[in-house]
Amino acid sequence: MTADVIDGRAYAADLRSRLAAEVHDLASVGVRPGLATVIAGDSYPAHAYERRVRRLAEDIGCHYTCEALPADVAEADAVAAIGKLGADPRVSGILVLRPLPPQVSEAALYRALDPLKDIESVHPVNAGLLALERPRFVPSTPASVFHLLDRYLEEAGHDLGEVYRCSNVVIVGRSANVGKPAAMLAMQRGATVVSCDANSDRAGLLHVHTRAADILVVAAGVPGLLRGEHVKAGVIAIDVGINAVTDPDTGAVALVGDLDYASVAARARGITPVPGGVGPVTYTWLLRNTVAAARLAFGVAGARSCTEGLTLQPADRMRAVPAAG
Ligand code: NAD
User: Fold this and answer.
1) For 28-135+280-300, CATH number?
2) What does the domain layout of the chain look like in residue ranges?
3) What CA–CA distance (Å, rounded) separates 128 from 136?
4) Of 93, 150, 164, 214, which sees the most CB atoms within 10 A?
5) Each residue of 201-238: pLDDT tens digit?
């Protein structure tokens, strides 16, 4: 079997052009969406991510600002920086980049976010709304996973509801920002959902579950965690992992996913590459949520019209409910 390559760059380009048009339209009613990132310390992946979202925000015409805090920032100062962005009318969405230094707790920063600017749904109120299937914002990485899956399945002529209802969806990785919300989105689609984490691997259960997956989403941060022999023939495999690996002979650094691409692709029906799969859609989705937040803040035609002005995929339809609270 030769797997279809699910090309995240192409889907992201499509989303990006519609998003740029929407930002242009908002400008005509005096609204400019604004994204703020908060970064503490000098984590290479966090800074690489910050550069990408900055470029995209500027390309599509959004306001952009970055609060770059030193690695030894006190938690109270980091909380104050979040409060300052919350009060800034130019900022409609705030992204707190991980990892944070050990003296700064993620929970403290997330609680300090204005829920209406919390575009990754990490504030307890927004995380709760997501769990209750009333998301204000669907976090960008899991949203991207299901945007890719939905579009791939639709383009193959499938009835999405039927496919998900009949599928065993296995999510490997259970972080609060990727694996757990991805499992919720799979449940919302009516799938049978299995969530695995490092304990599943230690208990010898990981491959039992991955071999039974019709749809496999892997977000563990472990290069080459799953190989061809760990998946079912015909699986649709979405690789969220982004791992920098150094070639011991040449010293060259390459980005790889959590799947051993060649051996999984040899058995899969569809697979996302790394790089060029989930990542590019994630950056774009972050800006989409920023635009939706600007609409909520300025009351421009309601958040729903932002959804309807773009593409009507199921992941989109669930996204921007202007929930109370
Ligand atoms: P995390 O470290 O917060 O969580 C990792 C999860 O994987 C945990 O639940 C852990 O228990 C589980 N895990 C670890 N080892 C495992 C094993 N051997 N078997 C099964 N489960 C295991 O990481 P995260 O923030 O969720 O990110 C995961 C990966 O996704 C990383 O590589 C990260 O760089 C990548 N990522 C990619 C995007 C994107 O847009 N493509 C966005 C966010 C994160």
Assistant:
1) 3.40.50.10860
2) 28-135+280-300, 140-278
3) 10
4) 93
5) 999 999 999 999 999 999 999 999 999 999 999 999 99
Distance from Cα 177 to the centre of ligand 1, integer Å: 9
Burial 178-205 (b: 16+ CB within 10 A, else e): bbbbbbbbbbbbbbebbbbbeebeeeee
Model pTM score: 0.92
d(CA 75, CA 164): 43
What lines the ligand 1 site, CB under 6 Å? 141, 172-175, 177-179, 196-198, 200-201, 206, 219-222, 225, 240-243, 278-279, 282
Read off the tokens for 120.
């990754």
The band of 319, judged by pLDDT with boundaries at 50, 70 and 90, is very low
Q: Which CATH superfamily is domain 140-278 in?
A: NAD(P)-binding Rossmann-like Domain (3.40.50.720)
